[in-house]
Amino acid sequence: METTIVYFRVSTKHQQRSGLGIEAQRAAVKRFAEAEGMQIVAEYVDIETGKGADALDRRPQLAAALAAAKKAKCCVLVSKLDRLSRDVAFIAGLMVQRVPFIVAELGRDADPFMLHLYAALAEKERRLISERTKAALAAKKQRGGALGNPVRTQIRFRLDRDQYAGRYLRRPRRHEPRGPQG
Fold first, then answer.
1. 9: which strand partners?
2. Taking every pair of C-alpha atoms in the chain, what is the biggest distance, in angstroms?
C-alpha cells in the first residue's frame, strides 16, 4: 500500500475554531486515499493565509510536511489546490522542491502542466474575488452602511463608552470646605 502525508490549511482562526474547513478537507482526502489505496501516515495543519511571497515561511507545517514526504519518499496529498496556494509562482516553487503532491479534487493524473493551469485559474479567481469584495464594500459604504467586523465595532464602542464613563463620570468629586454654618 502506498503511503502519503496529508496537508490541510485554513486561512483564519475563525475557520480553525469552527472545524468545518479542516473536517471537510479531511473527509475529501480520506475518501480519495481509500479509493486510491493510499495509507495516510501523517497529517499537517496550518492556520494561515496563502497570500504573499513569504507564504512558505509563514506556514511551518507545510514545510514540515514537505520535509517528511521527502524523507519518507512519498507524496503530499491535499484536498484542493487552493489549500496549497492560489499563486502560480508558489505552486511552481513547490514543484521545484521535487516532492510530488496530489490534489484529491483533480485526481492522480493531474500532471505538472495541468497543475500550473489550475494554479493560474485559481490566481485569477483570487483576483476576481478581491475585486468583487472591494466593489461590494464600496457600494455598502456609498449607501451609508457600516464597514468592518460588527463584533469588533461593538467591543470598540463599549471600550470607548467605558473609558468615557471612567474618565468623565467617575471623577472624584471635589468637596468644598463647609463653613461653620454648613
1. 46
2. 100
Residues β-bridged to residue 5: 42, 76
* DSSP result, 97-136: TT--EEETTT-TT--HHHHHHHHHHHHHHHHHHHHHHHHH
For 167, other C-beta atoms within 10 Å of its C-beta total: 9
| Residue at 75: amino acid letter | C
**Which residues have C-beta within 8 Å of that of residue 176, sequence separation ≥ 6?**
none
| 43 touches 6 (CB < 8 A) | yes
| Confidence check: pLDDT of 173 > 60 | no
C-alpha cell belonging to residue 160: 470607548
**pTM exceeds 0.90 for this model:** no
Digit-coded pLDDT (tens) for 145-172: 877 766 665 555 565 555 555 555 555 5
- Strand, helix or coil at 46? strand
Q: Which of 76, 62, 79 has its CA nearest to residue 25? A: 79
The distance of Cα 147 from the centroid of its chain, to the nearest Å, equals 21
Alpha-carbon gap, residue 90 to 53, rounded angstroms: 8
Task: Count other C-beta atoms under 10 Å from residue 130's C-beta.
Answer: 11
Total Cβ atoms within 10 A of residue 174: 5
